Predict the 3D structure of the following.
Amino acid sequence: MATAPVVAFLGPEGTFTSEAARRAAPGTRRRPLPTIEEVVQAVRTRGVDLGVVPIENSIEGSVNLTLDTLAFGPPGVSIRGEVLLPISMSLLARPGVALDDVKVVRSQPHALAQCRGWLARHLPGAALEAATSTADAARHVAETTDAEAALGPSFAGERYGLWVLAADVQDHAGNTTRFVTLGTGMAPPTERDKTSLVVFFGEDRPGLLLRILDEFALRGINLTKIESRPTKQQLGEYCIFIDCAGHIGDARVGETLRGVHRHVAQLRVLGSYPRADGLHDPPRPADSDEAYARAASWYAALLERVTAGRADQPRPDD
């Protein structure tokens, strides 16, 4: 009997990432790891088959640690899929602890930030303490005798014997986190795909960003995300993260990447993968694979005429 694949995720069990891993890779064996870097490294070294990490939240934006690990780490890891998970934060405490008793609130920094306004209104005097994950915060609270609470999913409370002091404490409705599935190869095209890449400019010259964006616009490719991050080399030096519609196997995306590559110091493709929203962004007729194939055939025929023309020319000594 074949052994089920192993998926690593930002653990421990009881985190939002553990739920995302369950949805992204059903039927797999699960391996919680304590940090995003360790999940990525486990995939890179083929210690696991897949990895699941958070990459973006609708309130707090990108998970910078994930972006940096993928962009600046060694090659060998690609994004193969994404999962959108609605996030409902609960304030969790040991049975018997009341809201007015809470002196410390623990959670992962992104979770604390998503509930900043609610905490300021309802627990203005509480100290905010960072944890490696929401589940780790719940575990810590369950083991302490102090008046502490954790921010996290209600199922983390169930796992660690905590009760819900307050539910849905995030500051904005529609709170959603995007998680990505990582593997050692890219996913095949589905016609409903997204490509993530990072551009390192190299030489700083006027109009370079516009030139890069024009490569996408000229071929009718929609950008779903664009964000700058420091390259960590020197102050004022930035790279650009781009998510665009389409797959690297699409002719218009391939042509775009070749165009961008000519103008920059480095172009790193983080992955092409199916869109979680399932949206189809069909190309204009002039940007279809068929149109590119016809253009390639036309150009090949044109080059053949050049070769034939040279054969017809008389030699100088004739």
